[in-house]
Amino acid sequence: MKKLKVLFFGAGVLGSLYAARFKEAGMDVSLVARGKRVEELREKGIVLQDFKTGERTTTRVRVMDGMPEKEYFDVCIVMIQRTHLADALKDLAKNKKIPTFLFMQNTTTGPGEMVEALGRDRVMMGHCNAGGEREGHVVHYMIASEMPLGEINGEKTERLKRLAEAFKAAGFKNYFSKNIDSWKRYHVALAVPFALAMYNNDSCNYKMAENREDCRRAWRGIKEAFRVLRDRGFPVEPPKFRLIFAMPEFLVLPLFQRVLKSKVADIGMARHLRNAGEEMGLLAEEFFAIVDRSGVSTPVLNDLRSNQDPSLRAISC
Length: 317
Known about the structure:
The chain is an alpha/beta fold. It has helices at about 15-25, 35-45, 85-90, 110-120, 160-170, 180-200, 205-210, 210-230, 245, 250-260, 265-275, 275-295, 300-305, and strands at about 5-10, 30, 45-50, 55-60, 60-65, 75-80, 100-105, 125, 130-135, 140-145, 145-150, 175.
């Protein structure tokens, strides 16, 4: 099979991690970065350190300081925060030769912006199964569970299968989502109540683990958020999320608190919130616009919204 030619747009934690792994898997990889990150990558390469093992690797990839306008790539994988999407689309639209753009950012508004800028046939969506943070030029990372990939029309196309194989070869387990738009919305519905409760605990998972009342509010807020999306016509995705409506609270809360005490919660939840406060603020604003248009009663969500400072307090725990 012909070597996949991949352009990664965005050189933060996730863009760096995925680009390095794709390169190590034998693919032709280029990475679009900006600011001082460009020279940093050209000088030092992508330096990764596994949170669990401490293993450090260095991978050299082709680094670009802007969107190539004339060059063909099999796919452009877009690894940016939601707050950067509008500006990124202006740059991405400059290249008419790339047939597929895979967007990995959080969203509550669906693929509309991407489709309008690039065309429906060129847009796919997925979600990262990794997290971490950057310390200087070193990316500290952790890979979690399987990641979803999907066409926006739900079909299992040949390009989707090929991309799934590429991610698998790079060490990222994945599965096909029949409704990737709903998947992304339910992810935000899960994240927003949790984030607002975390802010009340200085964005510290260990502190929140000891606060049973805020754990309860987060859980009830998530259930309300899911009801809002169902009211708006979005099927629960992934289907296993339906368990959220069935599990009794007295069983959930101890499990929730135990998870919050783990290193996974520290790396994959708390650190992300501390590093992405602006993005979470925008996602919350967009999600509450959906809440306000629904006919669903959301007393817990409303309480979380009214009693929280929307700015992220970058407190280390």
